[in-house]
Every structure is written in structure tokens, then in C-alpha cells.
Write a structure and sequence with these properties.
single chain; 414 residues; alpha+beta; six-stranded antiparallel barrel; 3 helices; 18 strands
Length: 414
């Protein structure tokens, strides 16, 4: 026969059941939490690059691209139309100042030069002939003037004699008037001849100056021809490296055609290009950082092209160390050009994460755990980035590449 279970026993059984379910639930929740923690990624702090947010000034810079070029490069052009007869050097050779590079056919030019020398001698003789002619003509006129003066003196004596005879009654008034008239006519003719002599002197001097000036101009032209002939002896203008030479024997070249290029490959500069939107920020004297892989070189903007071409503005950077061993002609480089200075701003180190002003998802160290946080960043330079909002002074931010954790909100830090 069934017996009724005591009430105390039933309560005890229910309590044991509740305890079992409670323990099971707590254990289950613990296992779930443990599993979640075990599934959360873990990183070692030593494998990450951190930057601590601080406050200070930041020199704003814009990015540009550039190319390494020789600090000195000279293009040698043919001064005359000719043809190449012989070459003495090849591209890549080191040459000294005045060393011959190639030979042009100068026979026709030298013949023309000899003709000019002959013409110069003709002009010199013509000038001497003019001097002799002027001297002879003026000498003849001077002699004639002496004779005219003597004749005038003689007539002056006749006038005095006739006046004296007339005073004694031995002469006549008509005779006196006649000799006086003859004297006055001779005096006027003498004055006229003296004026002609002075005019002739002035004309002779002017003709002589014209001839001398024409000879001087011709001699300058002759000197220019001589200089052109000397330049046609194609030589290196200074000690450098021959980076180009036209070695096609027999090839014809026109006046002004390039025949050689010499460059100083021991010193370099940077020819850069930047978007014309930043043209108003670029100025001569501004600081610049040139990046050669992991190395950086400091420099100064030395020249800015005033015009924009194809949406870019060209500029030149003079390097503080223009003989750095990493520099090679034609090497492409990145340039950071300083354009402004901001004071009292929050700063964080620049890194591969930064691609320009805007919002970023960065990981911040929060007491041994990395928390993903939305951060707004502003302007930058090669070393630092302006923090607009989302971070405060003292925050430790991961600035190394975290792209593989972009879907994680928390990362355990060891």
C-alpha cells in the first residue's frame, strides 16, 4: 500500500533539484564566458608600435613626388651647322674641364673666317687711306688760307698808301674807294675760306669716326665668329660625367642641335611636382623632407615654377646633404613639403594607417586591453598627425598595421 511522502522530504528534493539547476547554470555561464574570452584575439605588446598622444606644435606638410637629378647639368649644342667627323668619348666617361668630346667639320666655317680676316685688313687700309686723303685736303686748304691772308695783308697796305697819297693830294678819292672795295672783297673771301676749312675739318673727323666705328663693329663680329669656331671645338666646360654624346659619325647637325650633355653626378637636387591646389602654400625657402625608402633627407625649396601644367606645379628642392650615397640620378622619391605651423594641438605619431584628414578606427590601450575607437584626424607631417577629436592627452594608440583586426572591437593585450 502506497505511503504519502512526507512534506519535508518533498521540499528537500525540490531544493536539491533547484541547487543542481543553479549550479549547472552558473557552470554553463562560466564556460560561455571562458569560451568568449578564449575566442578573443590576443596580441603581445612587444609586437605592436604604440604612440602616446601629447600636446604641442605641428608643422603641417603636404605630400609630393619628385625625381633625383644632378645638381649641375649642362647641354652642349652645336654652334654652327656642320657634321660629326669624330668622337673621343662615350657616355658614362668622366671628363675634365677643356677635354675634347667630339670633332665637327669646320672647313667651311674656317674659310669664311679667313675671308672675314681679309675684309678686316681691307677696312683697315680703307681707314688709313681716308686719313691720308683728309690730311692732304686739309693741308692744301690750310696753305691756301695762308696765301689768302698774305694777299689780304698786301691789300691792307695798298689801302693805307692810297689814303696817305690822297691826304697829300697825289691821289684821288676814286682810287681810294677802289682799293678799299678790293680789300673788303678779299676779307670776305678769306672769312668764307676759313669757314669752309672748319667745315671740312668737322666733316673729315665725322667720316673718320664713322669708318672707325664700322671697323669696330666688324671686329666684334669677327671676334664672335672666332668664339663660335672655338666653341665648335666641342670640349667639356668643367670636370663632370658625360651622360650623353651624339656618336653618329657623319651625321649632320644644325646650329643649336644637342650634341652632348655633361653632369655632376657627385651632387644632386630634387625636381618635384605637386598638385596645383597646393600651389598657394608652396614658397621658396620652405622646409622639405625627402624620403628614400626608410631614410629621410632634409632640404629647402629653392625654386617654384609660377605656372601650372597638366594640373601640377614644378618645384626644386636643394638638399642639405646633396652627396648622400643613396642618391642616384632618375630615382623616384616622395617629398613632404612644410606649408604651415599649428601650436597647442594634440598629436600622435604618423604611420601607415594615415592616408589623409578624416575619420579612422584606431585601437587604444585601455588598461591591458585594446579597444577600437573612432578618431578624427587632421593635417600631418612626416612624423606626426593632428588629432581633432576622439583622443586625449596620454592615450596610448596603436600606430602599426592593424588591418587584419578591422572587424574586432576588443583585443587582449599581453
Amino acid at each position: 500500500m502506497d505511503r504519502e511522502i512526507p512534506k519535508a522530504a518533498r521540499q528537500k528534493a525540490r531544493l536539491l533539484m533547484t541547487l543542481k539547476w543553479g549550479v549547472g547554470f552558473v557552470v554553463g555561464m562560466g564556460l560561455v564566458i571562458w569560451a568568449i574570452r578564449m575566442a578573443r584575439p590576443t596580441l603581445r605588446a612587444e609586437s605592436l608600435l604604440f604612440s602616446t598622444v601629447d600636446v604641442g606644435s605641428i608643422e603641417i606638410a603636404v605630400s609630393a613626388t619628385g625625381r633625383v637629378v644632378p645638381a649641375f647639368e649642362e647641354i652642349i649644342n652645336s654652334p654652327i651647322p656642320s657634321r660629326i667627323v669624330e668622337t673621343y668619348k662615350t657616355s658614362g666617361d668622366r671628363v675634365e674641364a677643356g677635354e675634347p668630346l667630339l670633332k665637327l667639320d669646320l672647313q667651311s666655317a674656317e674659310t669664311d673666317y679667313q675671308k672675314q680676316l681679309d675684309e678686316e685688313r681691307v677696312r683697315e687700309l680703307r681707314l688709313e687711306q681716308l686719313k691720308i686723303q683728309n690730311q692732304a685736303r686739309l693741308s692744301e686748304m690750310a696753305t691756301q688760307l695762308k696765301v689768302s691772308r698774305m694777299e689780304l695783308n698786301r691789300k691792307a697796305v695798298e689801302v693805307r698808301n692810297e689814303r696817305y697819297l690822297d691826304s697829300l693830294g697825289a691821289g684821288t678819292p676814286d682810287k681810294v674807294l677802289q682799293v678799299e672795295l678790293d680789300y673788303n672783297v678779299s676779307r670776305l673771301r678769306l672769312e668764307e675760306d676759313e669757314q669752309k676749312y672748319r667745315n671740312e675739318q668737322a666733316t673729315a673727323e665725322a667720316d673718320l669716326r664713322v669708318e672707325e666705328l664700322e671697323l669696330s663693329i666688324f671686329r666684334k663680329s669677327l671676334a664672335e665668329t672666332r668664339r663660335t669656331l672655338d666653341d665648335a671645338q666641342i670640349r667639356s666646360p668643367r670636370a663632370a660625367v658625360l651622360t650623353y654624346i651624339n656618336d653618329e659619325i657623319g651625321a649632320r647637325v644644325a646650329a643649336g642641335d644637342r650634341v652632348a650633355i655633361v653632369s655632376d653626378l657627385s651632387h644632386f637636387k630634387i625636381e618635384g611636382e605637386i598638385a596645383d591646389a597646393y600651389g598657394d602654400r608652396l614658397a621658396v625657402g620652405g622646409k622639405a623632407i625627402v624620403r628614400l625608402g626608410q631614410e629621410t633627407l632634409a632640404g629647402t625649396v629653392s625654386d617654384v615654377t609660377p605656372l601650372s601644367q597638366n594640373g601640377v606645379i614644378a618645384f626644386t628642392v636643394r638638399l642639405d646633404d646633396d652627396a648622400h650615397p643613396r642618391l642616384r640620378s632618375g630615382l623616384r622619391v616622395d617629398i613632404d613639403v612644410a606649408t604651415a605651423l599649428k601650436d597647442s594641438v594634440c598629436r600622435v605619431a604618423n604611420g601607415s594607417y594615415y592616408v589623409g584628414p578624416g575619420e579612422y578606427e584606431l585601437f587604444v590601450d585601455r588598461g591591458g586591453e585594446l579597444m577600437r575607437q573612432t578618431v578624427k584626424l587632421g593635417e600631418s607631417n612626416y612624423e606626426q598627425v593632428e588629432v581633432v577629436e576622439g583622443l586625449r592627452m596620454g592615450d596610448r594608440v596603436v600606430v602599426s598595421d592593424m588591418s587584419e583586426y578591422r572587424n574586432k572591437t576588443r583585443i587582449k593585450l599581453k
